[in-house]
Amino acid sequence: MNLIVFDLEWNIGYKPKTFTYHGAELTLRGEIIQIGAVRINARGDVLDTFEVNLRPRIFRKLQHHIAKVTGLSQGDLDSGLPMREGLQKFIDWAGPDAELAEWGLDDVPVLKQNLFLVGLDERWPAHWYDLQRLFLQAYPRKEGEGMTLESVVDRLGIPKEEPFHHALDDALYTAKICRKLPLAEGLAAYPTEEEQLREALLDADAAARDVRVFMDRLDHDDYRNAEELNAVFCPECGARLTHDEVWLKRGNTGYYTRSTCPYCGHWYVRFKLSRRDGLHWSFARCTCPPTPEADARWKKQRAAFVERLRRRQARDAQGPADEA
Questions:
Q1: Is the pTM of this model over 0.85?
Q2: What is the 8-class DSSP label of residue 184?
């Protein structure tokens, strides 16, 4: 394995910036201004390091909060390598077979968006890992314990010899955490994106039926608009289900509705959404049998949703209040 532990610092604008990705309008999460990375072996030993500052093209003015957190200056940005050159340098150093690992899951989406915007292959890297997941398996989180890089460094008693929020230093701190983990075993057992999505959808629900995963979609609303996702069939008789016109939120990234079979009664169809790479939507779907608890929850939540919609429509129809 060619394992690269990396960290990014990125700049943001004072106003959101959107871009078009194969017909879909996306919001730019940030423009990379610093990359720090270390190549490690299965024990977490550092074999090589990489560092580069980049000159942004879109968010050219250093945002004041980013300056405060990172300690970077406008001069640091202005003297950085051009975006495409700096990103290509990172790819060349890491290698086409690199598997990236980061503390959390924030940096890879930013990296892939930036690669696309400068005309490089956003499919790189093909594999990446969230080291927080491996850490929590070895050190289950207790109440009140933080998961920031600095708080975990403190918890593990790792000496704090360099500042945080500097890309290379953060990557080196992360590598030191790796040395305290069963790294090789954790990476070997790391679930695929499909497995993670199924896990998030089901949440130990043994009654769920017809579990399916749909990858690399561009439209967030495909769960209710795309035929291949939205066509659901009764797990008992195979007849197509008719969905209620209302889809309700389920958690931060889930939706569900009540769907009726003309022969077997009703079911609940659930979706879980993910945009792990910052560019594509992935969906997991299942069909669940009704229970008295599920029916009562649906009835209550649907009524509340319809009432909120009615009030919103009434306000929109009324228009701005007349000036006195």
A1: yes
A2: H
